[in-house]
From TrEMBL:
Organism whose genome encodes this protein: Labilithrix luteola
PROSITE patterns assigned to the protein according to its UniProt record, in alphabetical order: CBS
Name of the protein in question: CBS domain protein AcuB
Keyword annotations of the record: CBS domain
Classification via PANTHER family: CBS DOMAIN-CONTAINING PROTEIN, CBS DOMAIN-CONTAINING PROTEIN CBSX3, MITOCHONDRIAL
Pfam families (UniProt xref): CBS
């Protein structure tokens, strides 16, 4: 008897931190360091408009004449964000992440960010699923 595929909401990080488009790169760095995270959904007026990763920050900050205390998140974020609903099947979401090399997927419900599924969350899910389904 096979078990059903769990939904993303079972493994996502709930209520992820986010940042506004007008915040500085220095603020984003500070948030990421303080909370040991690598992805920040970017909001404008409560609406998801992008994603900012530690890699985005590093890339932009290596450009000449970029001052992290004056440059805003909007200048470094990726405007294309892959999002899913909390009930999306984990296997489908993880397959899409692998195929497109996404480091995270934002989980949305009723137009609001309710979670984020990162590669770290996926590793935790894999460990749990392997343990519960194969270690018998």
């Amino acid at each position: 008897m096979s078990k059903p595929i769990p939904p993303v909401q079972k493994y996502m990080t709930t209520s992820p931190l986010s940042i506004g488009v007008e915040q500085t790169l220095a603020k984003a760095h500070s948030m990421m360091r303080e909370h040991a995270i690598r992805h920040l959904p970017v909001l404008h007026g409560g609406r998801l408009v992008g994603i900012l990763t530690d890699r985005d920050l590093h890339l932009v900050e290596t450009l000449k004449d970029v001052d992290p205390t004056k440059t805003v998140v909007e200048d470094a974020m990726s405007a294309v964000v892959h999002s899913v609903g909390p009930d999306a099947p984990l296997d489908e979401v993880v397959s899409t992440m692998a195929e497109h090399k996404y480091g995270s997927v934002v989980v949305m419900q009723n137009g609001k960010v309710v979670g984020i599924l990162t590669t770290v969350d996926v590793c935790r899910a894999l460990a749990e699923l392997l343990h519960s389904r194969l270690a018998k």
